[in-house]
């Protein structure tokens, strides 16, 4: 298990049950849910950080319904291939820890052990993550200022979260893996067609990353059939589209009871070069 480091002096933080403390006496209380806030808020003028409660709750309910279970299963296969003996993994932008808690469970079912740490900038997300009781240490922190020492992790998971590649490089061991999940061009096109008069395709970023070698790409696709308005609204509200859509367009799916849409992802595995 990898220790958090103090955001003030960069020394290791010792877990003292209800708080974390470094050797210089800096203390950080755990919330009642168990996560610790290591975000240096004075560095940001934002009043709220990360996904809000509406988005987090909708995403939790949608994911726990199993619609993206096929992606989680494939992610577990990838991790077992590149981390056959387990190791230390950072879920960077962990959200509610749907994927990383599934990863821990998958290894445990195979008699293996993997150590996962989770970081997200959203307190709401970490509250829901804590309720999974997966034993994953959780911290509120920016992906661009991770509270970990250099070369700490065997792998970093970067699943639909900001691409803080310089920080990922710093906290990965040489030869460690960055495992990235991105949506493909047609991902959720059916949902967008139900909302917008002219649905648009997603931009897919280039594969190349400085100081990393791409060692594998793989795609997983599924046609989702959502047969309740609750599931449709959860999918909509867990996406950025909800916050960028006019009230008039939002209302188009308020009474929609069936939706068929594509779910298409690419998993890219990178190895940290020297």
What does this structure look like?
This protein has 274 residues and is α/β, with parallel strands linked by helices. The protein has a single domain (14-41, 50-272), classed as Vaccinia Virus protein VP39 (Rossmann fold, 3-Layer(aba) Sandwich). Helices cover 28% and strands 27% of the residues. It contains 9 helices and 11 strands. The protein has helices at residues 53-64, 69-82, 98-109, 123-130, 165-171, 189-195, 229-237, 241-244, 247-250; strands at 14-15, 19-21, 27-29, 36-37, 87-92, 114-120, 138-140, 153-159, 172-183, 212-226, 259-272. The strands form 2 sheets. Strands 4-7-6-5-8-9-11-10 form an 8-stranded mixed beta sheet, with helices on both faces. A 3-stranded antiparallel beta sheet has the order 1-2-3, with no helix packed on it. Helix 1 (53-64) packs across helix 7 (229-237) and helix 2 (69-82) crosses helix 3 (98-109). The longest helix is centred in the first third of the chain and has 14 residues, at 69-82. The protein is globular, with a radius of gyration of 19 Å. The chain starts with 13 loop residues before the first strand and ends with a strand. Mean pLDDT is 94; it is low at 44-48.
Give a topology summary.
Elements: E1 14-15, E2 19-21, E3 27-29, E4 36-37, H1 53-64, H2 69-82, E5 87-92, H3 98-109, E6 114-120, H4 123-130, E7 138-140, E8 153-159, H5 165-171, E9 172-183, H6 189-195, E10 212-226, H7 229-237, H8 241-244, H9 247-250, E11 259-272
Parallel strand pairs: 4-7, 5-6, 5-8, 6-7, 8-9
Antiparallel strand pairs: 1-2, 2-3, 9-11, 10-11
Helix pairs in contact: 1-7, 2-3
């Amino acid at each position: 298990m990898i220790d958090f480091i103090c955001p003030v002096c960069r020394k290791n933080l010792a877990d003292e049950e209800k708080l974390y403390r470094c050797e210089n006496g800096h203390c950080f209380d755990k919330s009642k849910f168990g996560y610790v806030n290591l975000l240096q808020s004075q560095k940001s003028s934002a009043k709220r950080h990360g996904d809000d409660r509406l988005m987090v709750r909708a995403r939790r309910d949608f994911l726990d319904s199993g619609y993206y279970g096929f992606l989680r299963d494939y992610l577990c296969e990838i991790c077992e291939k590149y981390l056959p003996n387990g190791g230390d993994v950072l879920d960077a932008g962990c959200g509610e820890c749907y994927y990383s808690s599934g990863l821990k469970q998958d290894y445990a079912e195979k008699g293996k052990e993997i150590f996962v740490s989770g970081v997200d900038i959203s307190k709401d997300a970490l509250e829901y993550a804590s309720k999974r009781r997966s034993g994953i240490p959780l911290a509120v922190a920016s992906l661009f200022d991770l509270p970990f020492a250099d070369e700490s992790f065997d792998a970093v998971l970067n699943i639909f979260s900001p691409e803080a590649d310089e920080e990922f490089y710093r906290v990965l061991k040489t030869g460690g893996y960055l495992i990235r999940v991105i949506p493909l061009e047609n991902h959720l096109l059916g949902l967008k067609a139900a909302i917008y008069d002219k649905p648009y395709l997603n931009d897919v970023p280039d594969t190349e990353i400085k100081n990393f070698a791409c060692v594998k790409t793989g795609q997983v696709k599924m046609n989702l059939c959502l047969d309740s308005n609750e599931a449709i609204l959860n999918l909509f509200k867990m996406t950025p589209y909800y916050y960028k859509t006019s009230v008039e367009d939002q209302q188009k799916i308020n009474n929609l009871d069936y939706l068929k849409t594509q779910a298409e992802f690419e998993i890219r595995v990178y190895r940290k070069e020297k």
